[in-house]
């Protein structure tokens, strides 16, 4: 199971910031130590080219991130303090998702030990999302003819507003989001399918809603490639989640998605998206489950 990872995924942010930046290096170390992935399966991305970034973002915004010329309002909306290391990590992570898409098309399944930054819009970042890696990857793969019809399965607890907005008028991209209905973002541009769940939704109801939705999606759309945003923030203990999944319930979610997609022989990309568990160790272990499940299934 090949995955994208670069030590540059960890940017410099204040230690007291709520975003768990060290989860990226922590997850890489955990997966290697537990033999879920091998060192030789880790493919280090370079920084994405600006010509690829501007397939989903405006040239002004793409350059403002790199040059450090965001306004104070834009930086505050993004939720992360600008630094050159943040600009570098953002470009690395986008290329990591592009690479994971190519590897999945070749191998059947691949991942990026980052990615899923689904709140980023064409001309601004928000919700701890700088560039929209999935949107850029989709555009690059479409333009290069590697894939045409692409499905986004977004199980982050927050609706994928940026991705929904970017692909609102693209019939070749199907966006599906299952999320907390009353949670951020409060303005939710419609995905092709949105499943909004009430606060405190637990394992059984979540799993049923997910299975029913995937059945609907795959009856309507036959993709060349699937991007899975496996945010761990539906966990009951998450700082921002408001849903009530157990860790075992989250693992079952991973099994449902990976099994449903791969049994139909659709290439699948695994991406982290959000997660704010009580400790860094909790966050890493929860994110690791999708890769552990994929490994158990023979990838």
Automatic annotation (TrEMBL):
It holds the Pfam family Hist_deacetyl. Residues 17-287 form the Histone deacetylase domain. GO terms for biological process: epigenetic regulation of gene expression. InterPro entries: HDAC_classIV, HDACs, His_deacetylse_dom, His_deacetylse_dom_sf, Ureohydrolase_dom_sf. Keywords: Hydrolase. GO terms for molecular function: histone deacetylase activity; hydrolase activity. SUPFAM superfamilies: Arginase/deacetylase. The keyword DNA damage does not apply. Belongs to the histone deacetylase family. This is Acetoin utilization deacetylase AcuC.
